[in-house]
Amino acid sequence: MDLVPLHEVTSRALRPLLREESEHWGGELLWDFAEVTAAVENGLDRRALHGCVAREGARFVGYCYYMVDGGRAIVGSLYAAEGYRGRGLEEVLLDAVIADAQARTGHERVECQTLFSTAPGADHRFARAGFASTRRHYLVRRLGPLPVPSPNGFRLRTVQRDDLKAVSDLIHRSHEGSLDAALNLTYATPGLCRGFVDTLVLRSGCGRFSAEASLLAEGEEGPVGVILASELSRTNGHICQVSVDPGCQSRGLGTLLLVNALDAMRRHGLHTASLSVTVGNGRAYGLYMRLGFRVRKEFAAHAWVRPPATIELPA
After folding, report:
1. How many domains does the chain have?
2. Which stretch of DSSP H or E encloses residue 290?
3. Is residue 136 situated within a structural domain?
4. Does any domain span residue 95?
5. Domain range for residue 63?
6. Is 292 left (phi over 0), alpha (psi -120 to 50) or beta?
7. Residue 301 falls inside a structural domain
8. Does residue 156 surpass a pLDDT of 80?
9. Which of 37, 95, 46 lies closest to 68, judged by CA?
């Protein structure tokens, strides 16, 4: 088995492995991975991705990569072909990518969420490399009729393009001091949240944006809650983000947003809905369980900053 630097491999040569990966995540996560695969191929051709590929003879059997964006390195897929999983290959690939990402200059932070990893046991490699981590779950539920709660004084409407700044500010407020904000630079500032929102809404950064199921809740003083949704496949909708203003939490607004979004997905002909949640976020996790979501995959979020800086996780 040889490890080959990613920049020495063409997208055409890696295409059979990428197609197998796309089929794998389609089955495991109900995720049409075609657009992600196309983005990886484009990144390979532009030499914008760093990482390595495992080769046995003439066949590529695994790969791991990272990209640099906005002052951080983000580790993407850790994938091994069927028949090569659980034999230590993923750990070798991941160790090489982590070491390269930490050593390369030009960024001060490395992050990874191991949703797209075929090696659940590889998460401990991040701890060995000095990363802070937290457990996350990918949840799925079948869509069916749900009792829609009373608006309770809130007004719901679909998210419009003119709302994106207000949505970004709301998401930032809802994450201040949270575990997710400590491990994901996306939530650090209103500007970074705006980039995240624009990617979801304007550039289909997590499947096709669902205008029908993306809702803004308004109170007497303006926006106080938001849910952003997408379609990961022709049958599976995805909740990308749920945020409620801290001053309006514990008033049933999260339930109101979720139930209405799920109902919009059902009426649009989707069969299932998915979302990701940090296990330590007890309030959100409990809500999702009460609404019928169940664990489809366990994974983790990891983050590292270049010393002497450190990541402080909230108690």
Report:
1. 2
2. helix 282-290
3. no
4. yes
5. 2-130
6. left
7. no
8. yes
9. 46
Look at residue 3 in the predicted model and tell me its pLDDT.
96
Tens of pLDDT, residues 163-206: 999 999 999 999 999 999 999 999 999 999 999 999 999 998 99
Distance between CA atoms of residues 86 and 77, nearest Å: 16
57 lies in a domain? yes
Q: What's residue 46's pLDDT?
A: 95
Domain boundary among 130, 157, 183: 130
- pTM value > 0.85: yes
Domain with 40 in it: what CATH number? 3.40.630.30
Q: Which residues pair with 73 in a beta bridge?
A: 68, 110
Q: What is the DSSP letter of 17?
A: H
Q: What DSSP line would sit under 140-199, residue for residue?
A: EEE----PPPP-TT-EEEE--GGGHHHHHHHHHHHHTT-HHHHH-GGGSSHHHHHHHHHH
User: How would residue 86 be classed by pLDDT, with cut points 50, 70 and 90?
Assistant: very high
Say if residue 109 is in the same domain as residue 151.
no
From CA 91, how far away is CA 25, in angstroms rounded?
19
- Note the pLDDT of residue 144: 93
Rounded Cα gap, residues 119 and 136, in angstroms? 15
pLDDT per position as a tens digit, 196-211: 999 999 998 999 999 9
For the chain, percent of residues with pLDDT exceeding 90: 94
Give the relative orientation of helices 282-290 and 253-267 as an angle to the nearest 10 degrees.
Answer: 40
Q: How far apart are CA 256 and CA 79, in angstroms?
A: 38
Report residue 41 as tokens.
């191929």
Q: Confirm if 230 and 240 have CB atoms less than 8 A apart.
A: yes
